Amino acid sequence: MSTEAEKKSSEAAKVPFVRIAKRTALPIWKSWGIRLLSVLLALIISALFIFSVTGLDPIAVYVVMWDGTFKSSYSFITTLRDTAMLLCISVALAPAFRMKFWNIGAEGQVLAGGLCTALVMIYLGNLLPQWLLLPLMFVSAVAGGALWAFIPAWFKARWNTNETLFTLMMNYVAINIVDCLTNIWRGAKSSMGNINASTQAGWFPLIFGYRFTLNIIIVAVLSVGMYMYLRFTKHGYEIAVIGESENTAKYIGINVRKVVVRTMLLSGAICGIAGFITVAGKNMTISSGTAEGFGFTAIIVAWLAKFNPGYMALISFLLIFLQKGATQIASSYAALNDYASSIVTGIILFCILGSEFFVNYSLIFRGKHQKGGEKA
Amino acid sequence: MSLVIAWINRAVWFGTVIMFGSTGEIITERSGNLNLGVPGLMFLGGFSGFAGAYYYENSTQHPSAVLSVLIALLCAFLTAMLGGLLYSILTVTLRANQNVTGLALSIFGSGVANFFGVQVLNGGTSVKASFANTVFTAKIPGLSAAGVFGDIFFSYGFMVYVAIIVALLVNHFIYHTHFGLNLRAVGENPATADAAGIDVTKYKYLATCIGAGITGLGGVYYVLDYGYGTWSTANSIEALGWLAVALVIFATWKPRNIIWGAYVFGLFYWLYNYLPNIMGFTLPNYAVQLIQTVPYVVTILVLIFISMKKKKDSQGPAALGLAYFREER
After folding, report:
1. Which of A97-101, A267-271, B131-135 has the highest mean predicted lDDT (pLDDT)?
2. Do B107 and A297 touch (CB under 8 A)?
3. Which residues are bridge partners to A21 per DSSP?
4. pLDDT tens across B25-77, in order?
5. Residue A369 pLDDT exceeds 60
6. In angstroms, rounded to a whole number, what is the distance separating the alpha carbons of residues A121 and A108?
7. A218-265 pLDDT tens trace
């Protein structure tokens, strides 16, 4: 009797308390339920944080946060504008990430595009008519962004150089080049001011009263285009195969090097467009902070959205909403400041990142299969 | 001559910050975890170390030097370690993507540091922990007066030497101990390490947390010595954090190379300020930024070079950035 019990308990001891099994498939409502729960959890953690640090009523703070986006039509449309910017970069990164090419260099590629735009605006702005100037700015921005992505891509394809670290370093090269050139342009002044402030050459036209309406339109078109490209074209298929298994891709005759370089050219080009619309449609000037760190945030957006532009739009909106909200609460409460947005963003990102585990894996606890009885 | 010495001093101060950062990151990367949260960790370490020292010296009439140092270092180490723990939980246990988690940690870390930083600033633009600053910058009494020799080698606070010792110890640990061998095995091929009976999860956790703690020390050195003991929201910790990531590549993942590599980065970074004066010409304003690009460009060249040579010894850990799931073999 006692030996039997011992045997049983030793068997139980061999079964780990909890083991992890990959889920085959989860119904969509369940997987999105998990993600929604994670965002809720993040909001609760953030609320606890706000309360414990400042003693403010978290609900009231969230209401003020809501105002950051929905207070007026202007605040709403600027939220859309910034969402478009973040979405644009995320869309740019999607094909590269799909291919498992870690393009961490979006910040630099955006700046390269923005810099080329600014160069054309400054040196050709007074020579060319507007109908020729804008396309030329566009083309040069695309070329600039693509070049900045091409360099690491070529080395990756040729010598398998680590692209994560290469693209990361390229960011700072771009930042410093922009700093250098803006330093020349501004001369003794403390800031550059708007490019072509008097002639408005190269500025986007006003649509519905805003210049950045064009930004939103361009990004919407790009997002739909990218969805189709990844989903319905041969290129998109090749990217997906390389992402899943490079060996399979080689085996079925995909020229991996060619696809890597081609996809990164596309990725960089769209980043360049992001720079173009920021310089010509929003800031009217350039600085090393033009990309606003969105190049890094977009990496997280693209990854969390599983490269689906629709989800990317949702997550971009959520993050920008938080950022606007944090600015709003910083101006309403003396105890809070702008940096609260980074903290809340961080908490939400951590929670969503963590929740992916529960979407992809299920936990099986000991004793769930053998019903009760064994208390060792 | 005095300019050359000033340049070297500046390079050593600068180098010490990124030496801590890189040494910590090397331990982390050796376990196969590419933690891109280095700037965030340095922010966390820098702020909490500063805050600890600042509140300590404002709470007593006669602050003790030993306590001030201990509090600053412990706060920095532990806070950064918590950051590393968060990263480990997400990437090792919850299997989240490493790059994405690291970047999120960078955002979060700088957010936390600056958020509480503004609270400490209390409306001002900068606050100073003067006592901690004097302790951290205190030179070795006799040796620092030994002429040029003393100026070059002994005119620094104790953390400069601690950084070198830590880098040497880590080098010894990685290459000459049993645990170091296990750690390298985990970074090269976790499946093989697992089969050999090494607890991969434990190694990844420990390496990432301890590495993060050491990285955090770079932050506290930045604030209390390199930054003259002042906390302000306008600081360059983030740029230095990324340089620390660059230095790991430059040093080809070997702690012994970090010691000289950090100073070389420091010389490059501060070149604009000293070399023109030494050579007797003036540098246009805009050239400053171009010169500060040099460390990044050199790192890119090193990266290309090691990938072209394909020498096993100078590559990063083979499984760097890849998650390891035992059941997905």
Report:
1. A267-271
2. yes
3. A362
4. 999 999 999 899 999 999 999 999 998 888 888 888 787 888 888 998 999 99
5. no
6. 20
7. 899 999 999 999 889 999 999 888 888 888 888 888 888 999 999 999
E runs forming strands in chain A: 18-22, 361-365
Q: How far apart are CA A207 and CA A216, in angstroms?
A: 11
| Distance between CA atoms of residues B78 and B63, nearest Å | 22
User: pLDDT value at position B154?
Assistant: 76
Task: Residue A137: count other Cβ atoms within 10 Å of its Cβ.
Answer: 24
Whether A350 shows a pLDDT value over 60: the answer reads yes
Tokens of A90: 């995320």
A188/A233: higher pLDDT: A233
Domains of chain A, CATH where assigned:
57-332 (1.10.3470)
The one-character DSSP state at A207 is: B
What are the tens digits of pLDDT across the range B314-325?
677 888 878 788
For each of the domains in chain B, give its residue range(s) and CATH number, in order of start. Answer: 2-328 (1.10.3470)
Beta bridge partners of A210: A207
Above pLDDT 70, what percent of chain B? 96
Read off the amino acid at residue A371.
K
CB contact under 8 A, B106 and A296: yes
Strands A18-22 and B126-128, sheet pairing: unpaired
Amino acid identity at B300 = I
Q: Which two tokens stand for residue A264?
A: 């990164």
The verdict on pTM exceeding 0.90 is: no
For residue A236, what are its two tokens? 């998109």
Mutate which: B105, B115, B232, B328, vs A, most A CBs within 10 A = B115
CB contact under 8 A, B107 and A346: yes
Contact predicate A299/B99, CB 8 Å: yes
B93 contacts on A by Cβ (under 8 Å)? 357
Looking at beta carbons, which residues of chain A come within 8 Å of B100?
A: 299-300, 303-304, 349, 353
Q: Collapsing DSSP states into helix, strand and coil, what is residue A19?
A: strand
Q: DSSP state, A363?
A: E
Alpha-carbon gap, residue A301 to A226, rounded angstroms = 15
Whether residue A174 lies within 8 A of chain B, CB to CB, comes out as: no
Does B100 contact A353 at a Cβ distance shorter than 8 Å?
Answer: yes
Encode chain B in three state secondary structure: CHHHHHHHHHHHHHHHHHHHHHHHHHHHHHCCCCCCCHHHHHHHHHHHHHHHHHHHHHHCCCCCHHHHHHHHHHHHHHHHHHHHHHHHHHHHHCCCCHHHHHHHHHHHHHHHHHHHHHHHHCCCCEEECHHHHHHHHCCCCCHHHCHHHHHHHCCCCHHHHHHHHHHHHHHHHHHHCHHHHHHHHHHHCHHHHHHCCCCHHHHHHHHHHHHHHHHHHHHHHHHHHHCCCEEECCCCHHHHHHHHHHHHHHCCCCHHHHHHHHHHHHHHHHHHHHHHHHHCCCCCCCHHHHHHCHHHHHHHHHHHHHHHHCCHHHCCCCCCCCCCCHHHC
